[in-house]
Write a structure and sequence with these properties.
alpha+beta; outer membrane lipoprotein receptor (LolB), chain A; globular; disordered C terminus; PRTRC system protein B
Length: 257
């Protein structure tokens, strides 16, 4: 039974990869440049968005490398870097000095006690979340599948529960992905560990943009959930605008908005 579940999950993941543009195209992605246009909801407000740290404007993502640059952040003339769990602020005459090898551990040790976030806390969250999202579903092969469910109708047809290795820079060790009958990723469930020790999130993907075959979602609405039950409470509603997808291969086009 376990082997059958793994085989079915691999088949669904491969279908999803093809639906989102194919592994060959994703492996040629050098960077994705996008503008964060809106972000609202309870979750970020209680962490200090706008009051203690600003919303990033332009962000360059390198999902295959696990890196991101938040341009002119937290103020013009400075930028912040995310690199596989490390964060740094540069510009204004500052040398690039990463604060730690793993900022997540700092956040987990204090996030349940301290409100609001610092700028570097926000950089860690934006950095890992956005690179993680941009890597999906291409980063799913090789992960441990711990659950699978199918249904014959509805907005999703297959649900896959996966387990990430210890120390992975993602929302939580176990996450759940929902795909429609074409393989499109339509929902992503997780526990936002660095934000809340008790919260459960259902992240719905909307407004996919076709960047010469590569599908990138430009809007996410995150609902609070109880178990698998989705409540009407929206904890985050965020939109981006993809400006460019730049490829490492000269055969691949540069996609501009």
């Amino acid at each position: 039974m376990a082997n059958n579940m793994q085989a079915q999950a691999r088949q669904v993941i491969q279908q999803a990869i093809l639906r989102h543009g194919g592994m060959a195209r994703y492996e040629q992605v050098d960077r994705i440049v996008c503008d964060v246009t809106t972000m609202g909801g309870l979750a970020m407000r209680r962490r200090g968005l706008h009051a203690d740290f600003p919303l990033p404007n332009r962000v360059t993502l390198m999902p295959r490398q696990g890196q991101a640059v938040l341009h002119d952040y937290p103020a013009p003339g400075r930028s912040c870097l995310y690199d596989n769990g490390r964060v740094a602020m540069v510009g204004g005459g500052r040398e690039t000095v990463f604060d730690s090898d793993n900022h997540r551990q700092q956040m987990l040790s204090v996030s349940r006690l301290r409100r609001p976030w610092t700028v570097l806390d926000a950089v860690y969250f934006f950095g890992y979340a956005m690179t993680h999202y941009a890597s999906l579903p291409f980063s799913l092969p090789g992960l441990k599948v711990v659950g699978l469910a199918r249904r014959s109708s509805g907005d999703w047809r297959t649900r896959i529960d996966v387990e990430y290795p210890d120390g992975a820079h993602t929302h939580s060790k176990q996450e759940t992905f929902y795909f429609d009958d074409t393989g499109l990723l339509v929902r992503h469930d997780y526990r936002p560990e660095v934000s809340s020790p008790v919260a459960r999130a259902a992240n719905f993907l909307h407004e996919y943009k076709n960047c010469d075959g590569l599908l990138i979602t430009e809007r996410r609405k995150v609902h609070f959930r109880l178990g698998r039950l989705v409540t009407p409470l929206i904890v985050m509603d965020a939109s981006i605008k993809v400006r460019e997808v730049m490829y490492s291969s000269p055969e691949m086009a540069v996609i501009s908005a």
